[in-house]
Amino acid sequence: MAEITYYTKEGLDKLKEELHQLKTEGRASIAKAIAEARDKGDLSENAEYDAAKEAQGLHEAKIAKLETVLANSRLLDESKLDLSKVLALSIVKIKNIKNGATMTYQLVAESEADLKSGKISVKSPIAQGLLGKSVGDKTEIQVPAGKIEFEILEISR
Predict the structure, then answer these.
(1) What is the per-residue pLDDT for 7?
(2) Cα separation of 50 and 52, whole Å?
(3) Distance of CA 42 to CAs 32, 46, 154, Å?
(4) With contact defined as beta carbons under 8 Å apart, do 153 and 95 qualify?
(5) CA dist., res. 9 & res. 156, Å (int)
(6) DSSP string over 18-49
(7) Is the pLDDT score of 140 beyond 80?
(8) Nearest CA to 53 among 38, 65, 40?
(9) Inter-residue contact 152 to 86 (CB < 8 Å)
(10) What share of the chain is helix, strand, coil (3-state, %, to 5)?
């Protein structure tokens, strides 16, 4: 069975828009490429036709994968999140105990992760180390650079 993934409204809308684009404009452009290649003559020796058909197969596989992701996705109601501990979609302010640096991250689904905008995947090492913790808790997290100790300063949504 496929894994259930939780999304923000923004993330779910983005996935739906991408699927719509693939099914409409994407399919139309591939159909056009196949038609152009077919018009060039003998299909048994037409590399352009073979490439267009292969692109069509990959495109349809991408659509099927996205449909599966959407079928197994759930929208999280942020208003019902428990703010006493870190959960998916929580916005967490943490402090690196060793150097005093503070960071704020929102824990989101893998496909929504974007470090530049402060969104990290719930499957990342830092998020895994923060899940279930409360304000004031200290946690040691194994990251590629070694172990780092963090203190949770604030949890919001």
Answers:
(1) 80
(2) 5
(3) 17, 6, 67
(4) yes
(5) 17
(6) HHHHIIIIIHHHHHHHHHHHHTTS-GGG-HHH
(7) yes
(8) 38
(9) yes
(10) 45, 25, 30
- Lowest mean per-residue pLDDT among 37-46, 89-98, 121-130: 37-46
Looking at residue 90, the DSSP 8-state letter turns out to be -
Instruction: Tell me the residue ranges of DSSP E strands in the chain.
Output: 5-7, 73-75, 91-96, 102-108, 119-121, 138-143, 146-156
Structure tokens that stand for 5 in this block? 């993934």
pLDDT at 58 over 90: yes
pLDDT digits (tens, 9 = 90+) for 76-105: 776 666 678 888 888 999 999 989 999 999
Please give the model's pTM, rounded to 2 decimal places: 0.64
For residue 156, what are its two tokens? 């919001």
Helices and strands, number each (H, E), in the chain: 4, 7
